[in-house]
Design goal:
single chain, mainly alpha
């Protein structure tokens, strides 16, 4: 097993890590932030607020699980579509 872990250089590990991080962030931007949510009651808006809270919690948990949360800062602008 040790020979397997030594088969990949530190530069290769860094490149793979960067590629994985890029794909994770792309997944969040391209897939999660493009979800459409329908409020069937069109009432006070609590349904939509709770839906956004659940999605936000998922994104934070997803990025945190892969150690990417520290890469997110205010320069990362993820557009959220609001139907109107």
């Amino acid at each position: 097993m040790e020979s397997l872990s030594n088969a990949v250089t530190s530069d290769e590990k860094k490149s793979l890590s960067d590629l994985f991080a890029l794909h994770c962030l792309d997944f969040v931007k391209d897939e999660i932030c493009n979800l459409s949510i329908l409020d069937p009651a069109m009432g006070s808006g609590h349904f939509l607020v709770n839906a956004i809270t659940c999605i936000t919690n998922f994104i934070v948990s997803y990025l945190n699980n892969y150690g990417l949360i520290s890469d997110i800062d205010t320069s990362l602008h993820i557009p959220v579509k609001v139907a109107g």
